[in-house]
Write a structure and sequence with these properties.
alpha+beta, 6 strands, 23% strand
């Protein structure tokens, strides 16, 4: 049995307080309200979706564990989306593109199989869809 103070949770995106009975019940009810408990669960979801998008787009995503960790903490229910930019920007030095994508836009850069940058990126956003269990 949970102590009195731990029997209710207020979810930021939810509509009201949620009564909980146990840790498992807490995690289940948060998920039903659009929150994935535990950053490791969010990181796994992000990694899987990054891989799926890269395979679908026939390009390579440059692995960046620190960026994946950051976006896992920034999003309660992360979802990966794909974006592209004008290939003319590839004329800029790689260092500029990489810095802007990673540190300013907070996106994963896409690349060709040969390691060159491609005009693709994957971003992690907070999903507004409540998952169905």
């Amino acid at each position: 049995m949970l102590p009195e103070a731990a029997r209710a949770a207020t979810v930021f995106l939810g509509s009201s307080d949620i009564a909980v009975k146990s840790l498992a019940d807490y995690e289940k009810k948060l998920r039903q309200n659009g929150v994935m408990c535990g950053p490791s669960n969010r990181q796994e979801k992000i990694a899987k979706e990054l891989d799926t998008h890269a395979k679908r787009g026939s390009y390579r995503i440059h692995e960046d564990a620190a960026l994946r960790k950051l976006v896992a903490y920034l999003n309660e229910y992360p979802t990966v989306i794909q974006g592209a930019f004008d290939p003319a920007f590839l004329n800029l030095p790689d260092e500029i593109l990489v810095t802007v994508m990673r540190d300013h836009q907070i996106v994963f850069r896409g690349g060709e199989e040969n390691g060159e940058l491609a005009p693709h990126f994957l971003a992690v956003i907070m999903s507004t869809r409540i998952p169905k269990d």
